[in-house]
């Protein structure tokens, strides 16, 4: 009775207090979930890590591999762990795609396409993860006192190789890449790239519209072999979604009373998607600003410095048996488990601080890239492009400064627009 009376009293409050109370209640619910009930906490609480290690050992035993085959058991452990993670994450991914994204008109996938894509991602991940992990564990085993240097060098080479081959060999497994057709847009992109000495070799359009109506653009490649990739949803003249709208124009609106979600989808799909050519050039001016200002190189250097530090601290801590005992490993100290415990759990406070620092740095880089596009004479077009992209992605333009400072790698829209309008950039 007391609970219902409290609820009645809450509903009698002014609207602003009800909204504040609802937000506060939701925040505490999320906090309690993430602190006590999230997947990682449940795995720790119920001894999931040592159980999975013992289970992988039993599977290895069935195949004739004893405890001395630690790397083999580690690979089975990784396979089981990633399979568990994919299985438990699948319902949430389905809900996000076919309920939330579908409600707001973003989802373009069928269930069959989604499942095929998920299976393909899992297989590709295993094809990369298992060989790389086995080599890393082997290097740590035979590396002696300075194994952390060799391990760091190995991960550096792997990361550079993956960055090099991803767009050419991995991404095409999931999306169709086609050269941007000859025309005014391609000519203007080439002229802009040449004006800042960007070594552009090819411009691709990726068919992102078969998966989602979200848009993006990026460049990749090392040294003199740079390539630009544009999502078809970014290009107003190229987007499949816009052609669909034109084909469906003249159709009468639905009136079958299926609710707000259909109305929202109808509104979203009745507007044109993407940016005009001038706005696309402004967005690319921003992206190329990241290259010209050395942001990509700086991020790589920071990442590798952090990686080296983590491997060094791992070398210092790996011999501490109490760390393994704290997580249920009393009789053995597997290297893979040591990596998991130290990198994911022991380093978690450091990772939070580092993540915040990188977020602050990323926001600074975004302002600098906007300023670079402004110097190229693209301020007006970038201004309108940012507004269009925010509308297309149903972004909310107003953000709490403290929340956005901690969570957002990009500055809120209004801050970016204000900086583009100002006469100087801090």
Your description of this structure?
The chain is mainly α and 426 residues long. The chain is 68% helix and 5% strand. The protein contains 18 helices and 4 strands. A 4-stranded mixed β-sheet has the order 1-2-4-3, sandwiched between helices. Helix 7 packs across helix 12. The longest helix is centred in the N-terminal third of the chain and has 34 residues. The protein is globular and about 65 Å long. The protein starts with a helix and ends in a 5-residue tail after the last helix.
Topology:
Layout: H1 2-11, H2 15-37, H3 39-45, H4 48-62, H5 70-103, H6 111-142, H7 147-170, E1 177-179, H8 184-195, E2 200-206, E3 217-220, E4 226-231, H9 240-248, H10 260-269, H11 277-292, H12 295-317, H13 321-326, H14 335-346, H15 348-375, H16 379-392, H17 401-407, H18 413-421
Parallel strand pairs: 2-4
Antiparallel strand pairs: 1-2, 3-4
Function: Proteolytically removes the C-terminal three residues of farnesylated proteins.
Keywords: Endoplasmic reticulum, Hydrolase, Membrane, Metal-binding, Metalloprotease, Protease, Transmembrane, Transmembrane helix, Zinc
Cofactor: Zn(2+)
